[in-house]
Amino acid sequence: MTTVIVGGGIVGVTAALYLLKKGAKVILVEKCGVACHSSGKAGGFLTDGDSGWHSGSIGRLAKRSFALHEELAKELGAEKIGFRRVKCLGLGSAEKPPGEAGIPQPAWLAKEYQRDMGNESGLAQVTPYKLMEALQEAITKQGCEIVIAKAVGVEVDGDTVKSVKLQMPGKTTSISCSAVILGMGVWAREAAAWFPESTLPQSTVGSRYTSVIWDDSDVGRDATMVFTMGDEHTEIYPRSNECYANGCPSQPELPDDPLEIQPPAEEIEKVKVESIAAVPRLKDATVIRSTACFLAGSDDNRPVVGRVPKTSNAIIACGGGCWGILNGPAMGEAAAALALGEEPPIDMGAFDPMRFDSSYVPTVAKDLPPKLMALVAQNPDLAEALRQDPERIMNILAMMQD
Ligand SMILES: Cc1cc2nc3c(=O)[nH]c(=O)nc-3n(C[C@H](O)[C@H](O)[C@H](O)COP(=O)(O)OP(=O)(O)OC[C@H]3O[C@@H](n4cnc5c(N)ncnc54)[C@H](O)[C@@H]3O)c2cc1C
């Protein structure tokens, strides 16, 4: 039988890859084109789970996914996908103890950028559109069929999704499935209406960001990411063959068609001004591309990965936020395992969509007084801590109750 994946972003495409590796038959449905949205337009900054950028369950997700990125780099070719270890500098002073060397300042960077934000031991980068191209090539070679159509609903029998309804120019049709994975990114909120009995995230659209790419490859030689900390939140990610920057968050309406998401001229200008203040030589470089895309959120701004509540074979994986390229492979891997009825390689309990059901109480909280039960039910990290270290967390909760 066939697993149908809705969405050709990094979550959907890596889910396809991990399913194919286990011999499953996969059809990927994409309404526009593989990597047409954020997975093809993102920066590609990757931070390991224990690099100090993440903590708790997100840290474990990031650790698993960082390791998967390293595996993908070996499998697909590090150079081909722009994978390499990097350093990161931000606006500010080095703050290193006397005698300890900080991150060397590249000659192209304004002197105010000395704040050490990490080095090659925990940081890396990938060029997302190249990674997505290589992933698409890999899944196609392994027999994944890619169907360009918009998924508009599901046909359900009891708790089982039997088929996915598709809209194509001039016709509607459906494909049968043994399981469905919803990797729809910012458009995941549409799936809530497909499962009226269930509770799925309703608020999956974050801010739109504008990105600019220059043809400057000299900047990329130092492999140093730059956080400007400016009003437009511009971050500069030099790559080996070009220099990428993004910033200027805004909150317009999300269109249905990803191709309608275009960067306004004034936002491109703002990102350019902030980037050039940090990297003056960019003023002489040529802009080769500018794009815009939305951050994929969720009601509590955490990733959502798990079985759609009250179904036996529908899996949702969305809400990657600003770390969706980093965490995409682990989210895709977990979704693939769940679609096959297997346990994901790491505990994904903290990302279970059940948490959006206000009546849901994790088993671990069932014997607590109502107030603490509600606290644990709404806080997946607390629930997980309680599962792992019940005695200590119960003591802390008891103190809170007093
Ligand atoms: C400007 C910017 C920079 C970023 N930089 C980084 C970074 O440096 N590092 C990092 O880790 N993360 C970064 N991110 C986050 C990351 O890009 C996203 O979290 C990630 O790409 C989301 O992947 P996805 O597969 O969930 O969604 P998407 O990439 O949005 O893919 C979803 C796909 O589903 C398709 N789809 C939706 N609905 C349907 C439907 N009904 N039928 C068929 N197809 C459908 C869409 O067309 C789309 O192609 C950045 C994000 C932004 C906005």
Itemize the secondary structure elements and their pairings.
Layout: E1 2-6, H1 10-21, E2 25-30, H2 38-41, E3 45-47, H3 56-76, H4 78-81, E4 84-85, E5 87-90, E6 115-116, E7 123-125, H5 128-141, E8 145-148, E9 150-157, E10 160-168, E11 171-176, E12 179-182, E13 205-214, E14 224-227, E15 235-238, E16 243-250, H6 265-278, E17 287-296, E18 304-307, E19 314-318, H7 324-339, H8 370-377, H9 380-388, H10 390-401
Parallel strand pairs: 1-2, 1-12, 2-8, 5-14, 12-19
Antiparallel strand pairs: 3-7, 4-7, 5-6, 9-10, 10-11, 13-16, 13-17, 14-15, 15-16, 18-19
Helix pairs in contact: 1-5, 1-7, 3-7, 9-10
The protein binds flavin-adenine dinucleotide.
Question: What does this 3D model show about the protein?
Answer:
- The chain is an alpha/beta fold.
- It has 10 helices and 19 strands.
- The termini are far apart.
- The structure holds flavin-adenine dinucleotide.
- Flavin-adenine dinucleotide binds at residues 6-12, 29-32, 36-39, 42-45, 150-151, 183-187, 190, 209, 211, 246, 258, 293-296, 318, 320-326, 328.
- It holds the Pfam family DAO.
- Residues 4-338 form the FAD dependent oxidoreductase domain.
- One of its GO terms (cellular component) is cytoplasm.
Helix content: 25-40%
Unreliable stretches, pLDDT < 50, 5 or more residues? Answer: none
Overall pLDDT: 94
Judged by helices, strands and strand pairing, the structural class is alpha/beta
Quick summary:
It is built from 10 helices and 19 strands. The chain is an alpha/beta fold.
Task: Give structural attributes.
binds flavin-adenine dinucleotide, 6-stranded mixed β-sheet, 28% helix, 19 strands, 10 helices, single chain, 402 residues, globular, Oxidoreductase C1F5.03c, alpha/beta, 7-stranded mixed β-sheet
